[in-house]
Amino acid sequence: MKRSLFFMTGLLGFLFLPMAVGEETSPATQAPGFYVGAASCDLTPKPPVVLSGHLATLIADKVATPLTANVIAMESIAEDGTNDYAIFVTMDTCSIRIDFYKAFCQAFEKACPQWDVRKVILNATHTHNAPDIRADGYYSIGRDDVMKSSVYTQFCLDRMIPAIQKAWESRTPGKYAYGLDFAVVAYNRRSVFADGHAEMYGKTNNPNFRAIEGMEDHDVGTLFFWNDQDKLIAMMVNVACPSQENEGRLEMDADYWAPTRKMLQKKYGEDLVVLGLCGAAGDMSPHTQYRRGAEDRMSSMRKRTRVEEMARRIVGAVDATWEVVAGTREVPAVMKNLYAEIELPQRKITEQEYKSALAEALRLEKIVADAKPGEQTGAFSQAKWYRRVTDRWDQQQENPNQVYPTCIRVVRIGDTVLCSNQFELFTDFGVQIKARSPARQTFIVQLSNGLVGAGTYVPSKRAVKGGGYSAIPQSNMVGPEGGQVLVEKTLEMANQLFPKK
After folding, report:
1. Is 345 exposed, middle or buried (0-12, 13-18, 19+ CB in 10 A)?
2. In the chain, N or C: fewer CB atoms in 10 Å?
3. Are the CB atoms for 34 and 332 separated by under 8 Å?
4. Which is nearest to 499 in space by CA: 432, 412, 427, 371?
């Protein structure tokens, strides 16, 4: 199997060169047509574990809902025998960090040497209540009984790789249908105040509150897949919102995707595989920003928790879509999977930002040095957060035009296209891609594959102007300029898949 520069540099280098992978596939072994298979596996370890997605160390000692990985494998074989394929894997985790992705690629290539790992779209539902999958040592734990990140990584791989193989081996001639409806799940979480500054989760009952910063995307896009027995085997459900309503609780939890999957399986089949795809949602959250009293009252009267209310809305949108499109199932005329490695301009650090980050790093490092073991858990990881900014400043002095290497996957399935990226992409960028896409319907899949370094958010220009968490250098390796490059490259690839007649 060909190995790109992305893998030859150990997934960590800054030596990316743009490239694309089209119909670079394994030999077709079946008759012409469209083939699809699906599988699921449990990723819930025995607690205690360290939870990912927090600056402080949070340890979960119990399980609220199971964590899963869900897989759809598809292949299209043309009359001349050429084929292309895509394998979608959705994990209940915070994000696909580089350490985990590197281990995944090694395990995948060892177990499945006939396949190209670049054809795998591995993405996160973005729950903040799943075990950490960074390298060991990111968090200061202070307990010997807590599962190490490396142990959990292997725990996941031992289950995910067989699930991928099962999905592939279960492929049969299949059909698909797609559609769109709407549900209010995401709320823009950035409040703007009278002096122009913005805050994530800023209090909207503050007399100086003036606006919610950006738009919201309430699309619920669904792809349905049937096997050769005309049985619905899988769904992809695209919601532009992280699954983090229950963040901060000391328990493992798939958040709103757990009741969503359960409700869909109750109606459409207990063995239905449901892939929750998180759309462009860097500035979104399921937390209510205003009208909270009214929303809480309605949830209480319905006797539902907030995650159950989110599930009700999503499932309602899927049901409404099903009623219209279930009878339109067909074999997709085209299925193609493109991959590209690109370089995005890094967000530049100003001297003031450097000085501020350095002061905070030194303050936090003193707390760590003076504390007893286990007492500085928050300061330990926060100091690293600021140190990454000072390190970038030093690198910038040597080369003022630093770049961030990343990869994009764009998959066409019939009249639809799925566009993946590695980031927490602000919704403005996702809407740009949707609005300018040549496809009939466009799905955005963020937090896909391995992030190099930290700072996952890609903010809009107005967000950077307002400042605050998610729009400051500590949160961003890539700024608005890089976000626009990502948009343009994604659209270039999408247009390649939908050539004008």
Report:
1. middle
2. C
3. yes
4. 412
